[in-house]
Amino acid sequence: MIGELNERSLHRALKARYAGADGATEQSVDGFVVDVIAGGRIIEIHTSGFGRLGRKLERLAERHPVTLVYPVARDRHIVKTAADPDTPAKRRKSPRHGSVYDVFHALAGLPAMLAHPNITLDVVMTVEDEVRAPDGRTGWRRRGWSRRDRRLLDVVETCTITSMADLFDMLDADLPEPFTTMDLAAAMKSTRRLGQLAAYCFREAGVTEICGKNGNTRVYRRAAR
User: Fold this and answer.
1) Is 71:11 a contact under the CB 8 Å cutoff?
2) How do 208-214 and 217-222 pair as beta strands?
3) 90 class by beta-carbon count within 10 Å (0-12 exposed, 13-18 middle, 19+ buried)
4) Rounded Cα distance, 51 and 44, in Å
5) Measuring CA to CA, which residue among 2, 12, 56 is closest to residue 150?
6) What is the pLDDT of residues 108-148, one digit of tens each?
7) Which tens digit of pLDDT belongs to each residue from 161-177?
8) Spatial contact of 30 and 55, defined as CB atoms under 8 Å apart
9) Which domains does the chain show, CATH number per domain?
10) pTM value?
11) CB-based contact 161:133 (threshold 8 Å)
């Protein structure tokens, strides 16, 4: 199938998991090829930002319930493969752990998505192998290696999100009133960058609003529902 040519292992594994025994994969619906149709619902699996999905999701959600699936590696093993196929790969456990809030990296590209009543988001917390191979580049990030694949080892938990308010409610008890992006980052146990993305998504969805500034820092409050 054309839609499967560039799929990575993680995408294929989640597609099979959501299709189960009775679902269908790689189906044409309203002019788009969708990953899975199961139980009368369209399921789209995406591993990067949602920005380029806008038109597709909008069109599909006009007539069908849609679940967008976004995997986050709670635990990750780094597998480094050598250029020589006869050399065994090296495998180590990464000290980094993902959280459900990592979905804000993807949501920032389409923050109004969850306002549609036909769209649901599944954040799938996984255990994965991240396969890296030498690429000859020497940038400080790559250090001569690039990611070639993500392999699913286990699904730990699935968090179903029906609105941006669902995500905010997960943080609400840990936030002061009013609050800043640093407060959001602290509540998520994340970087300030992720706090800024969360603040943007909440504001665009109408869950929060700007109520002032503390120096150069915006201050937010909960919007009336």
Assistant:
1) no
2) antiparallel
3) exposed
4) 14
5) 12
6) 999 999 999 999 999 999 999 999 987 766 555 556 788 88
7) 999 999 999 998 899 99
8) no
9) 2-162 (no CATH), 164-225 (1.10.10.10)
10) 0.90
11) no
